[in-house]
Amino acid sequence: KELAVYSYYATDSVDLQEVGVYIIYYYAENADGISGTAQKIIVVRKIDVTKNDLSGTYSRSVYGFVEMNVKKTDSLGLYKVEDVLGYPGADMTGKFVDMGNNDLVLINGEGDFGRYSLSEGSYSRSALYWTIHFVDPPYEGIDVPVTWSKED
């Protein structure tokens, strides 16, 4: 059966003159009521990050020792991470973008503690730093600074 699109929309806009991370959300629904969503991450930066590689294993030992693997997913500086928070037993996968000049942007996402918002962070040769800003009750409004260390 052919799926004809009944309704479709995208949210957000991109300013190609303004450095930042833009996320376009797509929604579509067909006549049978079957719907789907997708997102596209668009990065505007003035720095070449194609030679940077922040991939590897990082660790954190605030709530107990936890390791996180970081994997570069494209040459333009998008990374997937197994854990953004570092709380043992909690599923909090995520993504971040290398903005260059030791700056990064943690892409909004969700996990066992609820949704978290887009936030700026930084990195050094041996660590990643960001703040998880929760947007859902019961943790709504709570900011948790996170540092992941990497051994060379």
How would you sum up this structure, described in words?
The strands form 3 sheets. The protein has an 8-stranded antiparallel beta sheet with strand order 4-5-6-7-8-11-12-13, with no helix packed on it. Strands 1-2-3 form a 3-stranded antiparallel beta sheet, with no helix packed on it. The model is unreliable at 1-5 (pLDDT under 50). It starts with a strand and ends with a strand. With 152 residues, it is an all-beta fold. It has no helices and 13 strands. The chain has strands at 5-11, 20-30, 35-44, 56-60, 66-72, 78-81, 94-100, 103-106, 109-111, 114-116, 119-124, 127-133, 143-149.
Task: Give helix % range.
Answer: under 10%
For the largest beta-sheet, the strand count, sense and barrel status come to: 8 strands, antiparallel
Computed over alpha carbons, the radius of gyration is 17 Å
Structural class: mainly beta
Spatial order of the strands in the main sheet? 4-5-6-7-8-11-12-13
Give the assembly state of these chains.
single chain
Q: How many distinct beta strands?
A: 13
- Estimate what percentage of residues fall within beta strands: over 45%
| Number of helices in the DSSP assignment | 0
Q: What is the 3D shape?
A: globular
Mean model confidence by pLDDT: 88
Provide the low-confidence segments as ranges. Answer: 1-5
String of helices and strands? EEEEEEEEEEEEE
